Design the sequence.
């Protein structure tokens, strides 16, 4: 893609991240200038995901929600309260406080609900990005994922419930059902498969499964929005003509445990760009 085209995409992302709707009240001017500086930096880096990382960092640190709490002071992603570094590449994982396995988005939503007092029902109403709206969990996941840039994927498989999640994920991946009798394997279980121009990674292999991790959360060029793996999973359930699972559900956690652990050992490069 050409540089100007990229710039337009990044500009769209900037507008969304900054909430620019044409007219700005004078008080917002400084913020816009600051966001514009971020935009410039993004052009240099060519990675619009960084805008969402910056937005996510703000959200992570701010006192928010009915309980006016900051996630940085309350939320344990598995590495200690407030610790972001290395958390992303170690999820899904078992969390003793809730006695269950959670993927990163689920854990973040759990923290937003438990400590900040947000309503899970409200968050689940429109969980995916659209052109005019990026849900807070998406920016937060992007920020947290950035904290694992350059680290090895190390999805734990020690706790029995972590192994159980993996086994369930492997089963969901292989089960054929629905009107077309498709499974994930139908599209992602062989090397060199494609639909139209899109290569379909063989996610059942160690190398192939990296595709389920690398570049996610990703700024999607088709549509110009930021998406996490929750969206990718739901979109593939839809492609499979299965009913879409609920937001931050057990089946998604299980699938991500399976795909993530299969990719263990690869180096994660941080939030990226997807076609
Ligand atoms: C009908 C075919 C089809 C089925 C069935 C399907 N997918 Fe997909 N999947 C796709 C397509 C198409 C893409 C997008 C590829 C692209 O944009 O390059 C994709 C992309 C993905 C990606 C992202 C890969 C990347 O390179 O970023 C993951 C992860 C994924 N699918 C997982 C699954 C899982 C898990 C299931 C089962 C619940 C599933 N898919 C079922 C067609 C399918």
Sequence:
């Amino acid at each position: 893609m050409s540089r100007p085209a990229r710039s337009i995409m990044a500009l769209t992302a900037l507008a969304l991240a900054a909430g620019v709707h044409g007219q700005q009240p004078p008080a917002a001017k400084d913020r816009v200038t600051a966001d514009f500086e971020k935009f410039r930096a993004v052009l240099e880096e060519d990675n619009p995901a960084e805008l969402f990382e910056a937005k996510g960092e703000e959200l992570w640190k701010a006192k928010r929600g009915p309980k006016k709490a900051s996630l940085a002071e309350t939320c344990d992603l598995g590495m200690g309260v407030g610790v972001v570094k290395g958390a992303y590449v170690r999820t899904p994982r078992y969390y003793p406080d809730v006695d269950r396995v959670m993927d990163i988005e689920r854990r973040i939503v759990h923290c937003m609900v438990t400590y900040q007092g947000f309503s899970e029902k409200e968050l689940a109403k429109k969980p995916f990005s659209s052109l005019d709206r990026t849900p807070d969990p998406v920016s937060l996941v992007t920020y947290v994922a950035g904290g694992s840039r350059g680290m090895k994927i190390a999805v734990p498989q020690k706790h029995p419930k972590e192994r159980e999640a993996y086994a369930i994920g492997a089963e969901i991946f292989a089960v054929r059902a629905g009107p077309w009798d498709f499974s994930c394997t139908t599209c992602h279980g062989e090397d060199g498969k494609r639909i139209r121009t899109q290569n379909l990674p063989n996610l059942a292999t160690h190398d192939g499964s990296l595709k389920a991790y690398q570049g996610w959360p990703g700024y999607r060029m088709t549509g110009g929005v930021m998406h996490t793996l929750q969206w990718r999973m739901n979109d593939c359930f839809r492609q499979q003509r299965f009913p879409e699972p609920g937001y931050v559900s057990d089946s998604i956690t299980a699938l991500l445990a399976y795909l993530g652990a299969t990719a263990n050992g690869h180096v994660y490069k941080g939030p990226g760009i997807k076609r």
Q: What stands out?
A: Residues 173, 182, 184, 186-188, 195, 198-201, 203, 211-212, 215, 232-233, 236-237, 239-240, 255, 274-275 surround heme C (CB under 6 Å).
